[in-house]
Write the structure tokens for this entry.
Amino acid sequence: MITLSPSTRSLIVGIAALFLLTASDVSAAIKQNNFPITASTPLIDGTAGWLGVNESSASGDCHLLVTLLRNKVLGYCALEGGAPLTEIQLWVDGFDTPVFTTPVVGDGPFSFTVDPAPALLVRAFSNDSVKIQGHTIAGLEIEGPLRRPYGVTTFTVPVYAAEVVPPSDSRALAICLVTVLSNPLFLGVDCVHNLSDPQTFALYGGAGRSTGQLALDLTSSLGETTATYWQPLNNAVYIAMANDRTYLRMVGTTENDIIRGQVNGCRTSASTVCMFGRFTVRAQGKPSGDSTRQVGATGELLAAPFENLIIKPGSVWKTQTALFSLTGENEQSLLVEMSDGCSTGQGIALNVVGTDFERFEYFVFFTDLMMGYSDQLTTASGYRLDRRLAYAMPCPPQPEQ
């Protein structure tokens, strides 16, 4: 683990706080989790879900990414057969007109951006009530519903000078959310940065503290303070990412103004959730009183409001909650509630909220990737818990300190 200086930690915490707090204002209103949203047309078995209508032979699939700040939607559609398309439309169930239309030409594949994204459209992704249509000069040619896909992993990647080999003099910072869709392979990159006059942005193949080879040029996605990318991913890069062998690299006006971040940070998957963009939390469990080996519990970051935990009058903490369960029905489940009170000087609290642990014992593991420490806790067998403080952590250096 790389040790950061207090000043570097403060800067990272500052830009991370800006990124997450801005996102929380939006997600609190629409009740979404604190990650980009993905939506795709393929069916569960992988077969095409974007299908021709009116006797058209067209078929294909579309994949969409909603950015963390919920202000932009990136889309990609591939098509086989049928007549050339002239327009793509997004519809929300129950409305008589499309919420978005964009002209296209030919047989695809088609890339498009919804910017700014209407709040109505963003909310509709949370309950799978969006469909996508392709039109020709003659009318509707192909359509299909957009659903939240399985096999999505998200990494939270701090990008800063100390990761560069050798370290650069840049004081710029970025926080990137890297989303990987496993079937089919897609890569999403959603960043905010404060790099002055950014020139290039790329994904490289290589381990930490080493110089790697260019894997993907992302410069076309780089804006003045943001970067957004959503395109198919080749298998070689996917395997490198799965083995923590890729990193992001941004370059400013000069060759000394370089920042880098290894794509091996905070990720969410079937058994691990990422909270506040910097804590990884996972749980294992076993039947109470059983000596059998622990097994991983399925984790889910609940789409609950990002604020509202009132510890005492005048003190509102930000909170996120993850649900872990060993059963398919989520019975005898464990809730892990992380609360950030650093804005009020109260620290960070990890709370355990349970239903009934007479049948199962849980073991919770958490890591703070930004500050570099890990710990674990065990639930007591046979106890009923009701929001109980399980672990308290000090605040990291704050931007104003």
